[in-house]
């Protein structure tokens, strides 16, 4: 069941990816429909690829291998089926809500709170309980290395999911993160990076450690290396998240710490790659003829490439060039399509004959799939690597006179269109390979026997008591006692004992993950100097809150950042760099992770209200060459003023200091501000009657962005000098105007 779901959702994820890749080159592909714009579909693509395709592949591997490694059937068939159907319903809920703009806007964690609750129940209550009870009732005392990685996956993903998704709901389809600004960004990338670590890495390493030796008919290369590989990954990975936030408003100590641990990750990651590839010693001749091994070899190679590139990208000087560019997109897809995709395909081809008790329908088609997949990956990632480097270099290019070489952001977009087209073609080639696998799956299933042969395996229950092996003795003589103790330790008998104790292994995994997390989380939340207060930063008005939610629903954060880094090229292009204290009322943060369009951190007051209106209606009319899709529905859809009091209440509950008028009469205040903006648009010879439309709320939000920093602080003493506006540096004291 999980294997079939893997294929179905994989095809869906790849197809949606092709659609949004095409939309980047040709925005009109969305046909003017709001639910298939890039901003709405991009999170659907990432969720489908990660949680639907890769997620079902993980469960396929875990359910097949765990029973054989434990010599015991899964503890509960009912929980297994609840897990399957619960997970598919969650994916279906994501497929329905995300295109409708129901989102939290946090990368890889976009789903709203009712779906998050369902994920927790299915992951912990169904999958986790079933797995750990199977471990408890296993009939093989020793836990093989694949099980260690499954334990780490289940425990850590549960922790990440719960603490990143703490929210205040204001309805069935809307909530606000309990974290704000800097803290929310930290929590998001503590989750986001480790979702890659413990959802797309550790379970697939467990898959590798089980299925690769099976396919090669060779034992894993090194037991000791697997131990070092496992514990190094579990302990080091959890520290690395802040490297996604270099040069942002995150405290520098946190991003530096993230960088150091990211660089250290290279060693254990390559330990796993080496362990996998050297398992094939003496079996390389099989690779030429066996498509399963071909997929595994290339998949592990991509794992090595990605886990080398990741630490390189975490280095601050490299990240200064790569961040917000398509380089990151290429890196992620090299890992997802190469490592996760190829390991999944290899596992599927190995499983099909065993699941259906017949020969694979076509080895020739499997080999063709391998080559289509490989060519598809290369066609996809190489143009995007070029696009990323092009973006980074053009953004930072400065002329001899100290001016921007490409001051208009759209200049950096136009040159990428041919690369985006090639990328979409690569996606089509990769999808065609997945369709071949689907055909092979179906034809192999059709050839299954009328009655399956059901072989029963019996293993005696474990004895309640077990005598440990004799304590090892040092193999050295004539040396210091400390050398002898190190020799005994190096024999790893102590770890061999741990491998018989799943509770102890689980406890140590939790300790490693929680200790590393708290070391970064506690200072970030408790040391006030990490987020210096700015006196002029005030909460969003009721209308601006509603506009911000429209910005989130339309997925604008997928294309625009709101974070100006302290770099010459960025401050020249966008304005004063962003300060930590500017984001204290942002639930969740909107710093973004990619710039398909320009940064919006200082957008407020740069353009007139009418300019924004026309820009939403026809972006290319205002910016020639823009690849932003039109948003004509914003002018037609009414703003639901009735929901505004709930938004204001939630913001107040989370710490926004609203006065009594804002709390008791937020609808009136919102309507007054909307009327002022609508009247201003009409005065500029724009359309009338917009005061109750969504576009007015979104314009109000955009006109607010970045303006607080330059307001004059209120002083109780009129004769007193104005206080510094931000970070003990005097900012411009000119009020932000709306032209």
Automatic annotation (TrEMBL):
Predominant location of this chain?
membrane
Which chemical reaction does it catalyze? 4 Fe(II)-[cytochrome c] + O2 + 8 H(+)(in) = 4 Fe(III)-[cytochrome c] + 2 H2O + 4 H(+)(out)
Residues where heme b 1; low-spin binds? 45, 333
Q: Which GO terms describe its molecular function?
A: cytochrome-c oxidase activity; heme binding; metal ion binding; oxidoreductase activity
Enumerate the residues binding heme b 2; high-spin: 331
Q: Which residues form the Cytochrome c domain?
A: 542-706
The entry's Cu cation-binding residues are 193, 243-244
Q: Which SUPFAM superfamilies match?
A: Cytochrome c, Cytochrome c oxidase subunit I-like
Q: What is the name of the protein in this document?
A: cytochrome-c oxidase
Origin species, per record, is Gimesia benthica
């Amino acid at each position: 069941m999980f294997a079939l779901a893997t294929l179905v959702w994989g095809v869906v994820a790849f197809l949606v990816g092709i659609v949004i890749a095409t939309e980047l080159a040709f925005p009109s592909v969305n046909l003017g429909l709001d639910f298939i714009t890039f901003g709405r579909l991009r999170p659907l693509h990432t969720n489908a690829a990660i949680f639907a395709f890769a997620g079902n592949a993980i469960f396929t591997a875990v359910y097949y291998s765990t029973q054989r490694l434990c010599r015991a059937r899964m503890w509960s068939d009912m929980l297994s089926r609840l897990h399957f159907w619960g997970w598919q319903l969650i994916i279906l809920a994501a497929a329905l809500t995300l295109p409708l703009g129901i989102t939290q806007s946090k990368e890889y964690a976009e789903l709203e709170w009712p779906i998050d609750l369902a994920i927790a129940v299915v992951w912990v209550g169904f999958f986790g309980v079933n797995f750990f009870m199977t471990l408890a009732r296993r009939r093989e005392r020793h836990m093989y290395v694949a099980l260690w990685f499954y334990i780490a996956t289940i425990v850590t993903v549960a922790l990440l999911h719960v603490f990143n998704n703490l929210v205040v709901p204001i309805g069935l389809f809307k909530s606000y993160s309990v974290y704000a600004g800097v803290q929310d960004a930290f929590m998001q990338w503590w989750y986001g990076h480790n979702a890659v670590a413990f959802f797309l890495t550790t379970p697939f390493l467990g898959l590798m450690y089980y299925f690769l030796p099976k396919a090669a008919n060779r034992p894993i290369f090194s037991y000791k290396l697997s131990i070092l590989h496992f514990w190094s990954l579990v302990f080091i990975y959890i520290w690395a998240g802040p490297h996604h936030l270099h040069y942002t408003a995150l405290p520098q100590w946190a991003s530096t710490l993230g960088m150091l641990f990211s660089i250290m990750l290279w060693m254990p990651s390559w330990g796993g790659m080496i362990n996998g590839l050297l398992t094939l010693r003496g079996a390389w001749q099989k690779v030429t003829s066996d498509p399963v091994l071909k997929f595994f070899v290339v998949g592990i190679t991509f794992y090595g490439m990605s886990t080398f590139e990741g630490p390189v990208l975490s280095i601050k000087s490299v990240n200064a060039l790569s961040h917000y560019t398509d380089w990151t997109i290429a890196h992620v897809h090299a890992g997802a399509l190469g490592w996760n995709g190829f390991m999944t395909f290899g596992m599927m081809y190995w499983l099909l004959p065993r699941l259906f008790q017949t020969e694979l329908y076509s080895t020739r088609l499997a080999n063709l799939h391998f080559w289509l997949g490989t060519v598809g990956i290369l066609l996809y990632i190489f143009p995007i690597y070029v696009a990323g480097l092009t973006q980074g270099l053009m953004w930072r290019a400065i002329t001899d006179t100290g001016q921007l070489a490409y001051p208009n952001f759209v200049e950096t977009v136009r040159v990428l269109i041919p690369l985006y087209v090639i990328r979409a073609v690569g996606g089509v080639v990769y999808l065609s390979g997945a369709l071949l696998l689907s055909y092979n799956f179906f034809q192999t299933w059709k050839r299954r026997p009328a009655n399956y042969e059901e072989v029963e395996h019996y293993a005696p229950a474990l004895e309640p008591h077990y005598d440990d092996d004799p304590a090892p003795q040092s193999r050295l003589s004539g040396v210091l006692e400390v050398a002898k103790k190190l020799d005994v330790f190096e024999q790893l008998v102590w770890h061999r004992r741990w491998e018989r104790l799943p509770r102890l292994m689980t406890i140590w995994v939790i300790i490693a993950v929680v200790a590393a997390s708290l070391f970064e989380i506690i200072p970030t939340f408790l040391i006030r100097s990490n987020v210096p207060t700015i006196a002029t930063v005030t909460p969003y008005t009721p209308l601006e809150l509603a506009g911000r939610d429209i910005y989130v629903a339309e997925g604008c954060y997928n294309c625009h950042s709101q974070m100006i880094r302290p770099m010459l090229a960025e401050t020249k292009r966008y304005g004063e760099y962003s300060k930590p204290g500017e984001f204290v009322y942002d639930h969740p943060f909107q710093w973004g992770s990619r710039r398909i369009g320009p940064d919006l951190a200082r957008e407020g007051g740069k353009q007139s209200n009418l300019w924004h209106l026309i820009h939403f209606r026809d972006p290319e009319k205002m910016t020639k060459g823009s690849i932003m899709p039109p948003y004509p529905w914003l002018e037609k859809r009414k703003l639901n003023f009735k929901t505004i009091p709930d938004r204001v209440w939630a913001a107040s509950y989370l710490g926004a200091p609203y006065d009594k008028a804002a709390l008791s009469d937020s609808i009136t205040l919102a309507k007054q501000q909307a009327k002022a903006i609508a009247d201003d648009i009409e005065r500029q010879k724009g359309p009338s009657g917009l005061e109750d439309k969504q576009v007015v709320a979104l314009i109000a939000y955009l006109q607010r962005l970045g303006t607080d920093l330059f307001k004059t602080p209120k002083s109780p003493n009129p004769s007193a000098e104005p206080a510094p506006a931000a970070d003990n540096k005097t900012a411009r004291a000119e009020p932000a105007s709306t032209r």
